Amino acid sequence: MFIEVYPTAQSVKDLNGKTAIVIDVLRATSVITTALHNGAERVIPVPSVEDAFRLARDLKGNSLLGGERRALKIPGFDLGNSPLEYKKELVEGKTVILTTSNGTKAIKASESAEHILIGCFLNASAAAGKALQTLSSETTGVAVLCAGTLGEFSLDDAACAGLIVDILVRNIKRINEIPELSDLAFACRDLYLEHRHDLKTFISHAAHYKRLLDLGLEKDIDYCLQQDVLDCVPVYEKKNMAVKIY
Asked: Do 15 and 143 meet the contact criterion of CB atoms below 8 Å apart?
């Protein structure tokens, strides 16, 4: 089985016949996973603020607007891009309309894939396991898609990609198959294994980490770097353009 990693949403090529795992650790995919774990009915990723307001009007209630620009809550929105805001009492039974600088664009960039899963540190093992379950004669590879930061490579996403690649490799080897890794998948796995015992220090060198820290969002960072604390795997359904747990 072939496992590849894309460094940014903008680098994605044709994913036809593959299962994609979309990652934006700080913070969109952590938000989506948390919101759905806490009972949100669905999350609808949209590219622009205008699209979000338009969709909210069309839905006529029972929806929440969430997202950020430059890591800050968008004026007029109900929620920002902190997973800690998406509490059960706020999101349960609601549709969350989400627009972010990187993560929602990465989801849209993955739409040529056969299956699209949402991953982060919070659900890394569950996401990798779900990806393996989707494989068949028609779906023979996994593409781990890092959102990146404004079109640039991001250490936080790369570390999470490395974790997921490592989980995939270990599970594939258990069934006596030999995985084939792209160069970047190999490098991300090696990065993760080298720094796994102190990921926060490693990721502290990321530009986006520093931006969040400057904004006083260290609690968000600490939350997003927890590994395997959630077992839900959000799935993006292209037909409905929404992320749900199926």
From this structure: yes
